Amino acid sequence: MESANFKSGFATLIGRPNVGKSTLMNHLIGQKIAITSNKPQTTRNRIQTVYTSKQGQIVFLDTPGIHKAKNKLGEYMVSVAEQTLKEVDVVLWLVEPTDFIGKGERHIAEQLKKSKTPVILIMNKIDMADKEKLPEYMAHYRELYDFEDVIPVCALRGINMERVINAIFKFLPYGPKYFDDDTITDQPQRQIVAEMIREKALRCLEEEIPHGIAVAIDRMRERPDGSMMDIDATIICERDSHKGIIIGKGGAMLRKIGSQARREIENMLEMKVNLQLWVKVKKDWRDSDFMIKNFGYDKKEI
Would strands 228-237 and 214-222 be described as parallel, antiparallel, or unpaired? Predict the structure, then answer.
């Protein structure tokens, strides 16, 4: 039974691609849910994670980065992010510490002005910034938008996480939990496994390939004696030349991706995993409504 002071509600993380949204959410939750890499457009779907404490419960929606779309997948990702702004109690906008505010940030500010949701500015990666200039950087952003709060953080090192949590709770209504205490995500296990494989591919592959890959789980079945999980997965790419790079000389790259993914999946499932990977070419899948839906990105679910 929650106390009368218990709060519960929804928060979303927005920002340009590669600003650290998934890293921040993983750190706030205390467990890895959203995949991270140094490549843009890593997060494609709205990932729901849950933080629960005696103070209350925060349901985080980690959205794809808001950017200018170049194909149907990009349009889907942007519409997910912008729709989420209207559905939550508070928005966390992540930016990097700089006095240059580009077109991308100005576009986000315009989207925020259409919504009446409170916005907290999170200035991430302060470990890489000149500390003396941080107040100046924050002042520049305050000129752009009327924020409820501005918080400098380092998501990677977990600096100022408690301040972020306390700031979120200020804007949440009093009410009961949406999820049990031990719930940390609503993501289906198969989807988390697919994302873990995609993350390892993003980290291992050349710059030009990762945007055009998806991962489909063909089979995921625990053996009757509980000794192992058998997983068959297919990495989808857009070009024959990409297929060769993903497989690598003598299959070396595919083995590397599979080995790294298997270790992480075993840690999550807490059991041995037999992971088999294949590679298929589906030309221009990112511009096909059918294929986008087939890989788990469905506009109707927004």
Answer: antiparallel
Instruction: Evaluate whether 34 touches 25 at the Cβ level (below 8 Å).
Output: yes
Q: Are 261 and 200 in contact (CB under 8 A)?
A: yes
What stretches of 53-208 adopt beta strand conformation (E)?
56-62, 90-95, 119-123, 149-152
| Helix pair 252-269, 189-204: axis angle to 10 deg | 140
> Which amino acid type is present at position 96?
E
Best CA proximity match to 108, nearest among 126, 95, 125: 95
User: Could you tell me if 26 and 42 are in contact, meaning their C-beta atoms sit under 8 angstroms apart?
Assistant: no
* DSSP SS3 for 71: coil
The residue with tokens 């205490």 is: 181
The rounded distance, in Å, linking the Cα atoms of 109 and 119 is: 10
- CA dist 84 and 24 (Å) reads 18
Residue-wise pLDDT for 263-272, tens only, equals: 988 887 778 9
Cα 109–chain centre separation: 20
Bridge partners for 236 per DSSP: 214, 280
Give the number of other CB atoms < 10 A from CB of residue 265. 22
Alpha-carbon distance 60 to 40, whole Å? 20
C-alpha span between 14 and 103 (Å, rounded): 15
Query: Which residues face 59 on adjacent strands?
Result: 10, 50
H or E element at residue 215: strand 214-222
Which residues make beta-bridge pairs with 123? 95, 152
Euclidean distance between CA atoms 302 and 287, whole angstroms: 18
User: Which pTM does this prediction carry?
Assistant: 0.59
The encoded tokens of residue 282 equal 């589906």
Q: pLDDT tens, 116-157?
A: 899 999 999 999 888 899 999 999 999 999 999 999 999 888
Instruction: Judge whether 121 and 93 are in contact, CB under 8 Å.
Output: yes
Neighbours of 56 (CB within 10 A): 23
